[in-house]
Design goal:
Length: about 55
């Protein structure tokens, strides 16, 4: 469940990141920073959740 949800969220983040780059509403640097931060938060949540499940 956790791995599947992680993959789904990661895919959604990648799609969202690609869309922001296509629209060019945000600066590329800002988009990258947001993308990296979101991934870091995602893995942080996953690492926190993992010990509880096991």
């Amino acid at each position: 469940m956790n791995e599947m949800s992680l993959r789904v969220v990661a895919c959604l983040l990648i799609i969202q990141h690609n869309q922001t780059l296509k629209t060019k509403n945000m600066r590329p640097s800002t988009g990258r920073i947001f993308f990296i931060m979101s991934i870091m938060l995602l893995f942080q949540k996953f690492l926190v959740m993992k010990p509880k499940s096991s």
